[in-house]
Amino acid sequence: ELGEWVGRGEEVARLIATDTVRVYVGVPERHIPYLEVGATAQVAIGALGELPLPGRIVAVLAEGAAESHTFPVVVELANPEGRIRSNMSARGHFQAQHGTPVLLVPKDALVTSPAGTQVFVVQEDKAAARPVQVGLPYNGYVAVEGQLAPGELVIVRGNERLREGQAIRVLRKQE
Question: Are the CB atoms for 76 and 58 separated by under 8 Å?
Fold first, then answer.
């Protein structure tokens, strides 16, 4: 208002430019090492349909949320038509750039117990348990790390009740 006093540091007006928008995505801490500034990303804006829009990562912030163990990743995308508005909900999709190849097993091969996660493999017609650490999922498979070698035959059916050294019979092998 005309003649109104504004204190030092107080907000006078708020301007929003929407020709380029920044989306802040909370990313779990285990994925942060694989994201790089400048990498491409896809952003789906719920109000505009599920078709993802292309963007690029402009920042991976250093301070995360302690309660959720997520870190803000800032994705910038063009908005020439002004369809994306301030405070619309969005979902980010990233291509994580892992530096080393990973071993994938069918998700049904994982057995979780109080002792941890394990995979049973076929070893001389007996079940052998191998402890694994679970990574990212990919098309019905899960990345694992542990005492498992490429090419080993993992058990995907009936593995919930298996015990170490139990005799087994392979009905069907699948590559």
Answer: yes
Q: How many residues does the chain have?
A: 175
Query: 104 with 57: CB under 8 angstroms?
Result: no
> Residue holding tokens 């250093």?
62
Look at residue 77 and tell me whether its pLDDT is greater than 80. yes
Distance CA 81, CA 78 (A): 9
Give the separation between CA 62 and CA 148, rounded to whole angstroms: 34
Cα–Cα distance list, 95 to 1, 31, 131, 133 (Å): 50, 10, 27, 21
Q: What is the DSSP track for 144-173?
A: EEES--TT--B--SSGGG--TT-B------
**pTM of the entire predicted model:** 0.54
CB-CB neighbours of 4 under 10 Å: 6
Question: How far apart, in whole angstroms, are the C-alpha atoms of residue 88 and residue 85?
Answer: 6
Alpha-carbon distances, residue 83 vs 59, 73, 88 (angstroms):
23, 22, 10
- Which tens digit of pLDDT belongs to each residue from 47-65? 988 789 999 999 999 998 8
* pLDDT tens digits along 14-35: 888 889 999 999 999 888 888 9
Question: Please, which residues have CB within 8 angstroms of residue 54's CB and are 6 or more apart in sequence?
Answer: 40, 41, 42, 77
